[in-house]
Structure formats: structure tokens, C-alpha cells
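C-alpha cells as discussed.
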């Protein structure tokens, strides 16, 4: 009886001159977000003999801060995780700048899908920097330099020390020179739009629930000034506008600017 021929063992893969040494492909299916694959401490290294698959020649994911071997570099499985996990920061995404509506306006792409509006004359020198969205309660365009945030509107207007830059329309991303002016902190506060809280839609107008009337109030030099009570909300809003024009001039944010 003839014996069956023995199966040939597949030869182990050995590194040759043709073996790629710089390819570090990702796993075919991306692991969940909170895994070594997405950890800032894990990095793909050149293909070699894997500790997890001794018979394979493959790219390896090495961790420099694994809780199983603190202080030592070890190979980790992409789908595993540990207590030292720290997510990698995603690179900022900037959209393509749209076509401007006129030759006088340009857009500068920021992060998070936002754009800054600038004059065409300022576009060339501003666009040499990478600007990102800054949101300290209000949206602005900024960049990092020497560990500090440089704001685009201040870069354009160059206010004197102690002065601020006021956006006339209240939009911190509208950085055309015609929409900005240097001012003091107090003048800048006068142009703040009405907050969403409160019973009235108008700035400086409030409702007295006890008397069932509307009253107007304005703040000047840190003091509240009562402007009286009024039968309607609109009359109280117009009273605020009259006082604001008298006290703040061009920096006043009015309820009815079309009536000036």
C-alpha cells in the first residue's frame, strides 16, 4: 500500500530586500474608539516577528505606556485597551473657502467648518497663517504663537494697549475693517446684544409681574439707571434707545436702529 505523501509545511516568511520595511497597514476593520488602535501612546512600527503571532511577519502596534508593563515598550492588540488610554487628537479639518460675493470680500477657512470674513486687501497676509475657531463664549478667529492665542480682529486693528476691538454687528468672525472699531472696555460692553434670558425680546426692557407693567433700565459706569415704567413693551424699548444714544453714542446697541 502506498503511503500518502506528507504535506509540505509552508515556509516561514523571512525578510528579504523586497520585503517592505516602512508599510504599517491598519487592521482591516477599525476597532472601537476606546482601544489601543486609537490611543496616543500606541504607534505602528516596521514589520517584524510579532509577539502576539510568533509565526507571522507583520506590522506591530507598540505601546509606550501600557498598564501591564509600565516604563517598557510592549506590543498590544489593536482592539484591546487599558487604564492608561488617552484618545488621539483628530487633525483639524478646514473646508474649502467659498467664492466671495464681491471683489472686496474674502473668506478664510477656520476649523469646525467655520469661516472668517475679511477685506480682500488683508487676505494675502492673513492667509499665510493657519487660523482656527476660538470660542470663549463668543466665536472668534485665532492662531497660536509662543503659547498664546493671537486673535485675528486684534491683528488687523492693532488696538493701543488697554483698548479693545468692537465688532459693530456683533459677529466675532466678521473681521472687515468697516465692521470693527477700537474702543474701551466700557464702550465695548454697550454693544453687547440682549441675552436670551428675560421676559422681553428687547434690550434693557423688563416685565414687572406685580404691577403688570413694562419698565426700562440701563447700566452706565457700573450703575443701573431706571428709566421708568411703560404700558407697552415697545414704548419701554424706545425709552432705552433714547438713553443709550445719549450715553453711548455710536457704541449703543439699539432695539430699533432703523429709527435713528
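Sequence:
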Amino acid at each position: 500500500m502506498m503511503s500518502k505523501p506528507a504535506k509540505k509545511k509552508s515556509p516561514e516568511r523571512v525578510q528579504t530586500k523586497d520585503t517592505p520595511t516602512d508599510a504599517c497597514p491598519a487592521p482591516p476593520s477599525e476597532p472601537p474608539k476606546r482601544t489601543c488602535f486609537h490611543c496616543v501612546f500606541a504607534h505602528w512600527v516596521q514589520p517584524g516577528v510579532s509577539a502576539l503571532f510568533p509565526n507571522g511577519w507583520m506590522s506591530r502596534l507598540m505601546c509606550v505606556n501600557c498598564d501591564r508593563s509600565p516604563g517598557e515598550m510592549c506590543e498590544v492588540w489593536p482592539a484591546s485597551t487599558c487604564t492608561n488610554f488617552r484618545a488621539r487628537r483628530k487633525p483639524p479639518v478646514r473646508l474649502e473657502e467659498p467664492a466671495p460675493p464681491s471683489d472686496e470680500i474674502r473668506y478664510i477657512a477656520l476649523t469646525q467648518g467655520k469661516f472668517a470674513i475679511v477685506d480682500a486687501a488683508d487676505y494675502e497676509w492673513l492667509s499665510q497663517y493657519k487660523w482656527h475657531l476660538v470660542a470663549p463664549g463668543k466665536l472668534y478667529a485665532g492662531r497660536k504663537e509662543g503659547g498664546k492665542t493671537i486673535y485675528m480682529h486684534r491683528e488687523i486693528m492693532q488696538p493701543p494697549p488697554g483698548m479693545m476691538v468692537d465688532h459693530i454687528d456683533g459677529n466675532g468672525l466678521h473681521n472687515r475693517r468697516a465692521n470693527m472699531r477700537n474702543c474701551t472696555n466700557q464702550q465695548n460692553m454697550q454693544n453687547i446684544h440682549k441675552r436670551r434670558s428675560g421676559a422681553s425680546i428687547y434690550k434693557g426692557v423688563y416685565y414687572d409681574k406685580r404691577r403688570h407693567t413694562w419698565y426700562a433700565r440701563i447700566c452706565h459706569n457700573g450703575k443701573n439707571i431706571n428709566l421708568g415704567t411703560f404700558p407697552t413693551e415697545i414704548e419701554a424699548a424706545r425709552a432705552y434707545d433714547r438713553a443709550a444714544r445719549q450715553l453711548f453714542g455710536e457704541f449703543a446697541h439699539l432695539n430699533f436702529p432703523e429709527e435713528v
